[in-house]
Amino acid sequence: MNRIIGERDLSETSFSPEQAREVYRDMVRARAFDERALALQRRGWMSSWPPYKGQEGSQVGAAAALDEEDWLFPTYRSNAMQIARDVPMSDILLFRRGRPEFESGHDVPNFPQAVPIATQIPHAAGAGMAMNYEKSVKESGEGDATDAAALCYFGDGATSEGDFHEGLNFAGVFDAPVVFFCENNEWAISLPRHKQTASDSIAVKADAYGFEGVQVDGNDPLAVRETVSEALDSARSGDPVLVESLTYRQGAHTTSDDPSQYEETRRELPEWRTADPLDRYEAYLREQDALDDEFVAEVEQEADAELDEAVERAESVEDADPHDVFDRVYADLPPNLQKQKAWLDSFIADRDVQELDH
Ligand SMILES: Cc1ncc(C[n+]2csc(CCOP(=O)(O)OP(=O)(O)O)c2C)c(N)n1
Ligand SMILES: [Mg+2]
Q1: CATH of residue 86
Q2: Ligand 1 center from residue 19 Cα (angstroms)
């Protein structure tokens, strides 16, 4: 099946006005966070920030479809999903300042966010296979089986990696309860989607692995939520799904990038694709009489207050120790990393001497 859901009257969807407003609230929180993070990076508060502006409808819609026990496999780009999953904003800020993820001890089934492209895809397939195994053990009499599934987030660029093909292949063969959620934002840094793959779509690639691929309008959060919910139901019953969410990255790839250098390589895109999802959703909810000025003001104020508190909390936590990067992968550090660690020690010692000299 391959479809893009057009906007319908709210009464024709399965969502109440209240549920639709909660999705709006998370989109406002996510937008406010992205804007604040960008401003903080510009002040030197963190070294880099990958903005997700334009992708909030897609990410909040997908996260809203998750049950509490479902696993999320995120990337550096999918912080709006973490916000919608109620990961404290201070945790996300502190991670960008070099502290370990989930500083607050917040306990949601989230994998660490992947920065190497596509590495989380075989991890998600493997986690799905482990869930099946756990279920079969528990069903044979050792306790209550959960019905958890995994949602694996990645970008259009990730579909060119071997890990994408290997992960989907394993999931298809072993009936892993995984939804592969590809957020097609048109860019892999400077490479536009039409130069990434000659396939008609990304969703069509699911055919090769024996399961369904679906396209959805990623700027319509209710359509995304509904599509991902259906996909999760299918995954839970043993049929993985590849969802391609069509959206658009409005900002730079990261704060180290300058899109004016490559924007002209973009193909003409339809209006709905590049439209701002927050403006569009707000206009839609107003048309549906599901939202008024008072609610908008309240949600915006709450988001600002939540952010003020998160920044204050992040600033109260001591700076990351640069040695942490050596301490979390190997039990016994291999010789090349021992050398780098020794270099870091001498660099820090020299810097301290220079600071004393001044
Ligand atoms: C294995 C690997 N190769 C290259 C990179 C450098 N890199 C960082 S982001 C990126 C583009 C990814 O594009 P996409 O998958 O569409 O995700 P988006 O950034 O658009 O969210 C690349 C090539 C990397 N991080 N990992
Ligand atoms: Mg991309």
Answers
A1: 3.40.50.970
A2: 34
Q: How would residue 276 be classed by pLDDT, with cut points 50, 70 and 90? A: very high
CA-to-CA distance for 120 and 102, rounded, in angstroms?
18
Are residue 258 and residue 335 in the same domain, yes or no?
A: no
Both 170 and 88 in one domain: the answer is yes
**76 Cβ below 6 A of ligand 1:** no
Q: Which numbered atom of ligand 1 lies nearest the CA of 253? A: 19
Q: Per residue in 122-153, pLDDT tens?
A: 999 999 999 999 988 888 877 777 789 999 99
The DSSP element (H or E) to which 150 belongs, if any, is strand 150-155
185 lines ligand 1 (CB under 6 A): yes
Q: What is the pLDDT of residue 4?
A: 62
The ligand minimizing its distance to the Cα of 50 is 1
State the CB neighbour count (10 A cutoff) for residue 346.
9
Q: State the total domains in the chain.
A: 2
Q: Parallel, antiparallel, or unpaired for β 187-188 and 191-192?
A: antiparallel
Answer yes or no: are the C-beta atoms of 72 and 45 closer than 8 Å: no
Same domain as 198, residue 123: yes
Residue-wise pLDDT for 218-237, tens only, equals 999 999 999 999 999 999 99
Ligand 1 atom 4, closest CA: 117
226 and 93, same structural domain? Answer: yes
pLDDT of residue 6: 64
Please report the pLDDT score of residue 3 as a whole number: 57
The answer to whether 313 is a known catalytic residue is no
Average pLDDT, the chain: 94
Ligand 2 centroid to residue 56 C-alpha, Å: 14
Residues 190, 158 share a domain? yes
| Structure-derived torsion over alpha carbons of residues 78, 82, 88, 92, reported in degrees to the nearest 10 | -20
Q: What is the pTM of this model?
A: 0.94
Q: What is residue 1's predicted lDDT score, i.e. its pLDDT?
A: 42
d(CA 293, CA 282): 10
Of 25, 253, 281, 284, the catalytic one is 253
Q: Is residue 263 part of a domain?
A: yes
Q: Known catalytic residue: 262?
A: yes
Residue 121 located in a structural domain: yes
Q: Is 177 in the pocket of ligand 1 (CB under 6 A)?
A: no
Does residue 343 share a domain with residue 290? no
